[in-house]
Amino acid sequence: MQANTSSAIEARQVGNRVVIGGIIAIVAILALAGILLLVNLPDANAFNARVERLFLESNLITPAEIRLLEILAQSGTQFEAVFSSYRLIIFVLLVFATALLIAAVAFLVMLIAMNRRMGQIERKGIEVNSLIISRDQNTVYLNNFEFKLTEAAIETLSVLAEARMDDEVLSGAEIEAVISGRDASDCDEAAGATRIKRLRDTLGNQMVSELLVKNIARRGYMLAIDKGVIRMV
Question: Are residues 141 and 196 in the same domain?
């Protein structure tokens, strides 16, 4: 049990490291792509620099030529403002894409973990971490879920719990004998089977009842849980 627990913890730690490494890799790749994109974009002031160079190298004397140069300068200023806004938009889109990819990875990991968990439940059945039987209150606490049972159902479940703690499998006649106080040879197998059926009906949830109370062919009935989780109060 300890080896299985340690291997499960190690597997979980490895999985966590893989997820963290994947998220860091996504952020690093997108950050590198954003830096390369922003660095390779043309300078927003390049147009104004060309207009200034044209003004210095040209001999503009007529009003029309000077007016044309002013229009070009104004266009360069507007181009610089638009280009700066484009840089901001690209930066916001990169941040948004990073957040979406991280969220997608997180949801994917959650789905994988949930599918593994459901597969374990399908293979192993219900996992009971705590079974507390309160005879005085006719109540059973299964994984902290409260089930109110009849007195007869509590007696049947108590007998099965005590047998499970002793690693015993009880037939229907033996169950009836323990509850009624008679000898097992004087009890009918069907009477114990009826008590098991009523216990399952009282539990209500078919999956819980069928997986909790296990029927072993030609041997009898037992609780399919670890005896260490059983408590009688």
Answer: yes
pLDDT for res 230: 79
CATH code of 150's domain: 1.10.10.10
Tokens of 92: 């916001």
What is the span of the domain harbouring residue 214? 131-232
Rg (CA), the chain: 38
Percent of the chain, pLDDT > 70?
70
Please tell me whether residues 185 and 212 are part of one structural domain: yes
Same domain flag for 112 and 51: yes
More confident residue, 121 or 5: 121
Helix axes 46-57, 63-124, angle to 10 degrees: 160
Separation in Å, CA 185 to CA 21, 142, 152, 175, 178: 66, 33, 21, 12, 12
Q: Say if residues 149 and 138 touch (Cβ distance below 8 Å).
A: yes
Q: Cα–Cα distance between 52 and 192 in angstroms, integer?
A: 102
Query: Contacts from 73-79 at CB under 8 Å and sequence distance 24+?
Result: 73/48, 75/47, 76/45, 76/47, 76/48, 76/50, 76/51, 77/48, 79/44, 79/47
